[in-house]
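Batch manifest, entry 17 of 40.
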Amino acid sequence: MDLLEERILENYPKIHVDASFPAESMYLKRGYQIISYEKIATENGDFLCYHTMEKRAGQECL
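Output type: structure tokens
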């Protein structure tokens, strides 16, 4: 994952991900910040909930 982030940040100012709640702690430890909470209603009445997260160049892992 270090290599992927490095390659992305060579060409873009930030990385944006849609993170499931189970993956959120991993991204926080890698220096990502929560930007927003999202909720999408599905056809069967359930909801898909997740956070959008970003990491900018220079943000280090915890």
